[in-house]
Design a protein that fits this description.
By secondary structure, the chain is of the alpha+beta class. Helices cover 19% and strands 46% of the residues. The chain has a single domain (4-147), classed as Protein Transport Mog1p, Chain A (3-Layer(aba) Sandwich), CATH 3.40.1000. The protein has helices spanning 62-76, 135-147, and strands spanning 4-8, 15-19, 23-25, 33-36, 48-55, 81-90, 93-104, 108-119, 122-131.
Length: 151
């Protein structure tokens, strides 16, 4: 597995382990953090981690937010199929993990694994995307990244 470095978000303050050498930015509209593996010689889908934060309010129905988020994803990508959907814990907090597959117009099959959790009136989503044929090789890495999120 890759060497991981702890990334602390400059404003939101969350911490998440990101592979050393991956490009990172907090300057993508609508995203708190985008981290992307280095380019390779041949064109391919670069594995990536995206963290988004949505203000929900203290009285929000977290399960309804999770459902809205998943439904919205289905409208945003081509031929989304849910493979797995389960309750998990991240940092001692209840979370929902959803593994999906969709078809990218240039790179073909993509596995998208998302972890959704709420804390202090905000909804956090950690999304890890990898080429479908690389999912088995990168599963441990993406799960370690997501499970390492600390709010």
């Amino acid at each position: 597995m890759s060497v991981l470095e702890l990334h602390r978000h400059s404003i939101a303050g969350f911490e998440i382990p990101i592979p050393a050498g991956w490009e990172r930015t907090e300057d993508v509209q609508g995203c708190a953090l985008v981290a992307v593996e280095p380019p390779r010689d041949q064109p391919h889908l670069r594995a990536n981690v995206v963290v988004t934060i949505e203000l929900l309010g203290d009285d929000a129905d977290v399960r309804a937010w999770e459902e809205r988020s998943i439904v919205a994803l289905g409208k945003a990508v081509n031929r989304l199929r849910t493979i797995d959907d389960e309750r998990v814990e991240i940092g001692g907090r209840d979370a929902r993990r959803v593994l999906s597959h969709y078809v990218h117009r240039e790179f073909g099959g993509v596995c998208l694994e998302q972890w959704l959790l709420a804390h202090a009136g905000a909804g956090y989503v950690v999304s890890c995307s990898v080429a479908a044929l690389e999912y088995d090789d990168l599963w441990d890495l993406t799960n370690t990244v997501a499970e390492g999120l600390r709010l």
